[in-house]
Specification:
Blueprint: E1 2-7, E2 18-28, E3 34-39, E4 45-50, E5 56-59, E6 64-66, E7 70-75, E8 81-85, E9 92-101, H1 105-110, H2 124-127, H3 131-143, H4 147-162, H5 171-178, H6 182-189, H7 193-204, H8 208-229, E10 234-235, H9 236-242, H10 248-259, H11 263-271, E11 277-278
Helix pairs in contact: 3-4
Length: about 280
């Protein structure tokens, strides 16, 4: 049995930087290898604390990577990836904690852009700032058997890092909450569009347009999953218009860029025959 849960931060300062925590603790009784899920590009950057390892591997277009017992810093920028469970002759323990940061967090707290993390092999202790402090964090997390207590331990150490951080500028929360177009954003902040685009690339690691496209895709995907889970009939043409895509072709192109599948293929694969859809 596996205790799996996603929780949101409650501390007001931490909630500026952390989107969510996800932990898995327990035992995997299944011995066969199998496909788990497809992970899609996102503007979030995550810290992964993997305390067992050799349980799963990541498949991308050009390589297969085994998830070892260690820490990881992963940029959500990039392409989709498939996650598979590795076969075994016996049951295995599982224990990990994933911390999803907003894209400005690694820049504000750790002085690194998400763009620098793409295709890199970086551990949490490499960018934490105080390596010995980070190793103590990892030791405390490894000893803990409760997922919620792991979250509390991480927040205790993150607050130590945040005490030296000045108040975050209003740029990031305004963009994430309002998702304005470039002209509106420029007028609201009082900076030129060129300055906005340069700052955006520096903080988020992607262009202003790419960030907006990704946020629209994630919102679209969330709505699509809810519709499909409720077994409601889906009219993709109307759905595309409702989510501000120019037309059917634009929706298909954007969806396939982020998922590697068309909307029809995604619904068919994810929800089998329980959902009717048409264009």
């Amino acid at each position: 049995m596996i205790n799996y849960k996603e929780v949101k931060p409650e501390h007001p300062l931490i909630s500026r930087y952390v989107h969510s925590y996800t932990y898995s603790i327990g035992d995997i009784s299944e011995k066969e290898g199998k496909y788990i899920t497809r992970a899609f590009p996102t503007f979030l950057t995550n810290f992964m604390f993997e305390f067992c390892g050799n349980l799963s591997e990541i498949h991308t277009d050009n390589k297969i990577t085994s998830i070892d017992r260690r820490t990881y810093v992963n940029s959500g920028i990039g392409s989709w990836m498939d996650i598979f469970q590795i076969p075994s002759n016996s049951s295995r323990p599982i224990k990990n904690l994933k911390v999803d940061f907003y894209p400005n967090a690694v820049f504000d707290i750790f002085g690194i852009s998400p763009f620098e993390l793409i295709d890199s092999d970086i551990r949490v202790e490499d960018i934490w700032g105080n390596r010995s402090e980070c190793l103590l964090l990892c030791e405390e997390l490894e000893k803990e058997s409760s997922g919620m207590n792991m979250v509390k331990i991480f927040e205790k150490y993150l607050l130590l890092r945040l005490k030296d951080i000045t108040i975050a500028d209003p740029y990031t929360p305004f963009f994430l909450n309002k998702q304005p177009d470039l002209k509106v954003f420029s007028k609201t902040l009082g900076y030129s569009p060129r300055w906005i685009q340069k700052k955006h690339q520096e903080v988020f690691g992607v262009s202003f347009k790419m960030m907006q496209n990704n946020m629209r895709f994630l919102s679209t995907l969330e709505h699509l999953n809810k519709l499909a889970a409720s077994r409601k009939e889906i009219n993709f043409s109307s759905f595309a218009q409702d989510h501000e895509y120019y037309d059917q072709a634009h929706f298909i192109k954007e969806f396939k860029r982020f998922t590697g599948m068309t909307p029809s293929e995604y619904v068919s694969k994810r929800f089998k025959d329980i959902v009717r859809f048409y264009w």
